Structure formats: C-alpha cells, structure tokens
C-alpha cells in the first residue's frame, strides 16, 4: 500500500505544490504545509475507493486540508516573525510569462477559499462535472462561479490591477 501511495503521490506531486502556493503563498513554512497535506493524504488514502481518478480525490483531500489549516490558524494567536527571510526565485527565461503568472496568482489569492479551489481545478482542466463533485456544488452553480471568476480575472488583467 505504501509503495502504491508513493507512486501515485509522485505522479501527482504538482497538486500539493499548487494548493500550497495558492493557500499559503509567501510563507516561510510552505514546506511544512506541503508535509502536512501529504500526511493528510496518507491518513485518508485507505478511504480512496478508485471511484474517481486519484488526482480528483487528491485535490479534494488537499483542498479540504488546506482550508482546515487556514481555519485553525485563524483561531491561533499571531506570531511575530523576527528574522529577515528572503525568497530565492529561480530566474525564468520568459519574464513576461512569469510576470503574468505572478499576477494571476495575486488575483487568485484575493479570492475566497472556495473560488480559489474552483479556479485552480478549472485551470488544471477538470470538467465542470468533476469540479462540482470535488467542491460539492451543482454543475450549473459551478459553471456560473467559473464564469464570474474568469470575468474578475480578466478585468484585473485589463485594468492593470495587482
């Protein structure tokens, strides 16, 4: 079971990173959040019944875990960081593409947790039906939300807002 889980996790490792980037962006302890999501995936793995794709199940577990972690943080006292930590970014050959991606992440980060989850799944080319299944909404409601989010993102890009 452990080997099977490890292989599936390796094949879908981008999901964990993507969820962490969207929900825990610009935090020093992002690696800790990734580890926590992997732990939650491992704990939930026995409940995976192969009724959907592993990636669909993985998104559901990671999204729910990320939202739970954020809720728990809101009830915890804020800690003050005293160290000066700088993020090291790997240079990208296509600066405009990187800037657009950063701007997209900034816009997405301003969305509610549920809208972040919906647009993340949409950008990963999940169908409306799959997104609705993961999020727990109707397919129609999911479509409406996706269109509203896309309009908001497009508006942010055309207005030059950050």
Structural class: mainly alpha
The CATH superfamily title of the largest domain: RNA polymerase sigma factor, region 2, helix turn helix motif
Strand content: under 5%
Radius of gyration of CA atoms, rounded to a whole number? 17 Å
Number of strands: 0
Portion of residues within helices: 55-70%
Total domains: 2
The CA-CA distance between the termini, in Å, is: 45 Å
Low-pLDDT runs of 5+ residues are 79-90
**pLDDT averaged residue by residue:** 80
- Which geometry do the CA atoms define? globular
Find the CATH topology of the largest domain.
Answer: Rna Polymerase Sigma Factor, Chain: A
CATH class of the largest domain: Mainly Alpha
Largest sheet: none
Can you count the helices? 8
Helix and strand sequence: HHHHHHHH
Supply the CATH architecture of the largest domain: Orthogonal Bundle
């Amino acid at each position: 079971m452990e080997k099977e889980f490890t292989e599936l996790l390796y094949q879908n490792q981008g999901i964990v990173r993507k969820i962490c980037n969207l929900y825990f962006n610009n935090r020093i302890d992002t690696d800790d959040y990734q580890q926590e999501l992997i732990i939650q995936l491992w704990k939930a793995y026995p409940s995976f019944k192969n009724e959907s794709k592993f990636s669909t199940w993985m998104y559901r577990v990671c999204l729910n875990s990320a939202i739970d972690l954020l809720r728990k943080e809101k009830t915890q006292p804020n800690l003050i960081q005293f160290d000066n930590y700088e993020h090291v970014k790997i240079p990208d050959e296509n600066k405009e593409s990187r800037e657009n991606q950063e701007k997209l992440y900034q816009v997405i980060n301003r969305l509610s947790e549920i809208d972040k989850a919906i647009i993340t799944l949409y950008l990963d080319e999940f169908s409306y039906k799959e997104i609705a299944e993961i999020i727990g909404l109707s397919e129609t409601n999911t479509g409406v939300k996706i269109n509203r989010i896309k309009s908001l993102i497009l508006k942010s890009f055309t207005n030059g807002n950050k």
